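Translate structure to sequence.
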């Protein structure tokens, strides 16, 4: 009798002989080695929000869904598989829509340039007039002292106007040399004007920082500096070429006479303040815009504004988080 004995199970059926050599065993499906992951079909190149959480799928790998064969990209935030289906083309309306959007964008930039020129011109004019105020008062005092009575030019003097030939009555150059330099000895009114100017110039720079958000910060700062110099130069040419209507009747505002005596040096202080304010606003424009986007815009609608992060090399933050964190870091923190 064979030394290998048959082992009986509980139901009486014979099982494999004890000590017999076992044949090749089948491996369980769950213990099989994982199959190699297929190569991605590509990567999402544009802005495409996740339909579940609104996370921007830009840069995610595109794979083919095994059941339906559709290309898809899996959201790293919520794990949902988003099908990437091409929309039908707009045919002839596509070019028309692109043209309209381009014209609208150029019109917005042109309007922004006009607003910037008007704001900078007004600020420059205000700062220059405040700086020339001490010299204007001295010119008026000397002009009044040149007449025996105030009744001869009562209207002109009450309106701070100088009559025809006032240069022959007083030595304006000597008065200008005796007046403290407004650049080195600014008055209290000048300091207040310089402190109030950035209040409305910095927000203008913030708007330009967002409008030019697709450019690096250094280029935006250079554009702000060039824009300030161009606006001040154009304002100077306009101010010098367009005279006052009072000159036709032989009158001249005393403040204009003071500004003309002080010359182009009055542009130094407003130029520095305006350029610094615009550049400061442009530097913090995109960070402020990113914070406002996270606070005010729902996650599903943030994808078109993702350039505010990518142009500075920052990842689009995860849905529901206020800040500029990485999606990978967020997922890792949640899994832990």
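Result:
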């Amino acid at each position: 009798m064979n030394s290998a004995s048959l082992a009986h199970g509980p139901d009486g059926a014979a099982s494999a002989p004890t000590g017999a050599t076992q044949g090749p065993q089948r491996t369980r499906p769950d213990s099989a080695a994982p199959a190699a992951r297929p190569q991605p079909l590509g990567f999402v190149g544009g802005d495409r929000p996740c339909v579940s959480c609104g996370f921007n799928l830009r840069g995610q790998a595109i794979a083919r869904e095994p059941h339906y064969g559709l290309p898809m990209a899996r959201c790293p935030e919520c794990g949902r598989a988003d099908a990437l289906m091409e929309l039908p083309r707009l045919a002839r309306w596509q070019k028309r829509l692109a043209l309209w959007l381009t014209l609208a964008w150029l019109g917005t930039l042109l309007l922004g340039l006009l607003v910037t020129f008007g704001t900078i011109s007004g600020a420059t004019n205000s700062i220059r007039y405040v700086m020339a105020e001490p010299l204007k008062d001295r010119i008026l005092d000397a002009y009044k002292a040149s007449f025996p009575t105030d009744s001869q030019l009562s209207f002109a003097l009450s309106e701070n106007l100088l009559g025809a030939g006032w240069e022959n009555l007083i030595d304006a150059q000597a008065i200008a040399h005796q007046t403290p330099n407004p650049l080195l000895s600014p008055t209290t009114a000048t300091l207040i004007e310089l402190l109030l100017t950035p209040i409305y110039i910095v927000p203008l720079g913030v708007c330009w920082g967002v409008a030019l958000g697709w450019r690096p910060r250094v280029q935006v700062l250079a554009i702000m500096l060039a824009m300030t110099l161009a606006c001040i130069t154009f304002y100077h040419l306009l101010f010098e070429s367009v005279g006052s209507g009072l000159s036709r009747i032989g009158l001249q505002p005393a403040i204009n006479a003071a500004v003309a005596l002080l010359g182009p040096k009055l542009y130094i202080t407003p130029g520095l303040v305006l350029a610094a304010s615009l550049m400061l606003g442009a530097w913090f424009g995109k960070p402020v815009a990113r914070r406002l986007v996270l606070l005010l815009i729902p996650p599903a609608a943030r994808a078109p504004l993702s350039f505010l992060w990518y142009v500075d090399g920052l990842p689009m933050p995860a849905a529901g988080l206020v800040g500029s964190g990485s999606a990978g870091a967020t997922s890792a923190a949640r899994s832990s």
